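thought: fold this chain, then report.
action: predict
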Amino acid sequence: MRAHTAILICIMGAAAFSMGCRNGNGADVIIMGKDINAEKGAQPVMKINTLVVGFLETNCYIISDENKNAAIIDPGANGDKIIKFIEAKGLNVRVIILTHTHHDHVGALQAARDRFDVPVIISTEEAAFMGVDRSDMKTYAGKLTGDVFLAVKQGDEIKVGDITLTVLLTPGHTPGGASYKAGSIVFTGDTLFQDGVGRTDFQGGNSRQLMESIKQNLLTLPDDTRIYPGHGPSSTIGRERDYFGS
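observation:
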């Protein structure tokens, strides 16, 4: 695995990190495809737990269905904290999902792999950027099998119990950055924040590509789609469309 140059992730523009603007550690119960306050019914339920980890305050998301099938999104740091939380909740981790591979998003990846022995979802381009050995790679074929890296492409669907995540490729912050949409929720990594975007002045960054990704794969989503970014508070596509003036 190739080591990246030390990375400091921050939001371009006016948005700044502070404890006052964070989601904080907590849980949201989402009715998939409906408003968060909708009554439970035929639609599957997804619980989102946000663990803020590492000195760059990365959002590690633990998502789970009503049967405790779970996925870890971006285990950035503090592996013991992540593992202890999951075990205390009695969750069954089925997969680890990476939006991208900057160190503050994968710092606890090995600890999580060692503990849960599950596959890691990553885009093909990001696997190359990370330098994943070919012997540790397989093409995702609709099933979460083995403890390898599973390479996904645009539109692939990842089943985690009753939860279905759709892959939206959003390169630009890194060459193979990806977002993951579940109902009216999308996990955007460092592609799109509340009132800001990820930096593109690091290795592999491309500002033109980043803006194309945002416009084509994120701002085309409905206004009430809620984004859960890699840092900072959640937002909505409607708010971010207004921010970009589109």
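thought: worth noting. The longest helix spans residues 207-218.
final: tokens above.
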